[in-house]
Amino acid sequence: MYIESIDTTGKNKCKIHLSNGVDLTLYKGEVRQLHLQENDEITEDMYEEVLEEILIPRARRRAMHLLEKMDRSTRQLETKLREGGYPEPAIESAIAYVTSYHYLDDERLARSHIRFYQTSRSRMRMTQDLLKKGIDREIIDRCMEEELEQSQMELIAVLLQKKGYDPENATRQEKAKMYRFLMQRGFASSEISRVLRGGFSEWD
């Protein structure tokens, strides 16, 4: 393979486009140190050396830094590293590295999310949130079954009580307002209607 082009990205970095379709992001000083120029041939040994000596250690450090700032799912971390210009072998190595130390754990992230939001969001809303983070549906379902402490109807009743909703004296407008409030939190229409119709006592 050979170097098709070397493009400057920012003040200190270059993106190197290889003929096999792979892009490598290196600092300008590294490009000079390795004597890389457009149309130069890159041997497999040189490519592996750049990966092992520069990009994989850097990707691991970057992954650790990203996880220090906030918990992320595997897919979220992969996306951030890909945006940073790391090639797939470096990303795979970084993911394996942080996973081996339990810094990256999709199940732990799912359980933490559910514990934090289960008193304010519906199961459906939390499921959608976790799917967007890239967490597997099987992990989500298992964590939901083990972590949820209230049924959805019980949670609706609690939220309505917190809002000061009086089912006995509520006007049509107040019922419609509470209905919209609960729909925005992802509760099913049938669940909302049952609680609004039956009041709180059934779910105490």
Describe the model.
The chain has a 3-stranded antiparallel β-sheet. A hairpin with a 3-residue loop joins strand 1 and strand 2. The protein is mostly helical and 204 residues long. The chain is built from 10 helices and 3 strands; from the N terminus they run βββαααααααααα. The model has no long low-confidence stretch (mean pLDDT 89). The chain starts with a strand and ends in a 6-residue tail after the last helix. It has helices at residues 28-33, 44-69, 74-83, 88-100, 106-117, 123-132, 137-147, 152-162, 172-184, 189-198, and strands at 3-9, 13-18, 23-27. Helix 5 (106-117) packs across helix 7, helix 6 (123-132) runs antiparallel to helix 7 and helix 9 (172-184) packs antiparallel against helix 10 (189-198). Helices cover 60% and strands 9% of the residues.
